[in-house]
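Limitations
The structure tokens in this dataset are predictions for the assembled complex, not deposited experimental models. Users should treat interface geometry with appropriate caution, especially where small molecules or nucleic acid strands are included. An illustrative entry is reproduced here so readers can see what is and is not provided.
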Amino acid sequence: MIARSADNVTSWSVRTYWLILQAYPYAFRREFGESMTQVFSDSVRATWNRAGLAGLATLWMRTVVDVVVSLYSAYVSETRDSMFRIAVGLSVLYVCALAATVGYGAIGFGEFYQPPGFSVFGAPNAHEDVLLATYEQAMSGHFGRYRLFTTAAGFSLAVLLGATAALFGLWQKSLPHGAGALAAGAALTIVAFELLPTVWFPLDRYPVGALWVMGGGIPLAACSWLLVTVLGRFGPARARFTHS
Amino acid sequence: MRTVQAAPVTPVEFYILLALVEGDRHGYAIMQQVDADSQGTVQLGPGTLYTAIRRLLEYRYIREVESRIDPQLDDARRKYYRLTASGRAAATAEAERLADLVRLARMKQLIDAPAKRARS
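Predicted assembly:
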């Protein structure tokens, strides 16, 4: 009975750890994943026999910290990989474009000053009609320069985000890695557009954020992610990305 | 091409090199030896252990020797690691560096000499 519960606990812990291991870089888990699972399995068995459930809880807490710390080291040591360099380069471009967009939004604040409206997360003085009016105004051509900028910035951000996420997924030979990067990038963009302008420029005064959140930014990013992923995995030989 | 011989080692890597001085070990045995050597103050998780092992393999301070069964554990095959000559030299250099630092700390009376500390 005790032996069976020990086996169950070991088996459950090892399966969970194996899932967590999928977050490590592909090359790292290919080389060490099996050994790491084996070491963890030995640790679980020894801890369970020595200290029972309390010991196992402590071991898991230590393991979570260990995973977080070593994940960083494992990814940093992968920097020599060409695919990763491309993804890092695109990420830098993406962050620069995001910063430029937010910065330009700050400059455009004077042009777009409106009475307080609402944010996506809901402000006490929410007025949807004010936001919509501002959005319509931005799209009407009255602010042609700003409209052109928002369109170009939104398009570039979406394509860069999708391409970066796809390259990351290809580098890791894992679709979930790419999907996770895409979701994280989209969330980062929404938060940047939503929270940063809320401090200084509420969303209703900030059409770039409104265009991204309400417009086609996320679907466009998903399309570019899909395109680069398909080209990288199934495209003609010249279009495929090399993996070291 | 990076110069691997000159690469300094971190405390965790130094503990791993020390664990391998007495002979070949697999990952779990290294982890247990580091735990024993450090009197429980350094408890490596699999992630930290294998990121350090990877660096030591890159520096060629250790090498993988074979996969075999540890009769004391289970029937699974395990990768064993061995200290190389350059790994031994790096561990020696690190030990001497630490010994020099301890000597300096004693000279500046930051810490007591062993005999004096035992009396107090």
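Some entries come with short summary sentences. For this one: Residues 1-5 of chain B have pLDDT under 50 and may be disordered.
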